[in-house]
Write a structure and sequence with these properties.
mainly alpha; 72% helix; 89 residues
């Protein structure tokens, strides 16, 4: 697993903005994947880490109770995004 922030930073250096302009599908889908994927594990987002501290949420409780739902939502959202992109472009 890779943290979402270094993944996006590395991707920005790997792909040329001349070939993939800022409004290209690659950047939009990367933003979706990095932003939403970070919620699968509570430590994958700053909001999740803050919630752990403020609400005293345990990591393994989150994995057992929430991560599966977050993963299902992640894949569902990605699928809907891909279908919508195909229909509109």
């Amino acid at each position: 697993m890779v943290s979402n922030v270094p993944l996006v930073a590395a991707s920005m250096g790997m792909y040329s903005l001349m070939q993939y302009p800022p409004d290209h599908f690659l950047w939009e889908f990367l933003a979706y994947c990095a932003g939403t994927g970070g919620s699968i594990l509570i430590i994958g987002s700053a909001a999740g880490v803050a919630a752990m501290g403020l609400e005293k949420i345990r990591f393994f409780w989150y994995v057992k109770k929430i991560s599966g739902l977050a993963l299902a939502g992640y894949f569902s959202g990605a699928g809907v995004y891909l279908v919508q992109y195909q229909l509109l472009h």
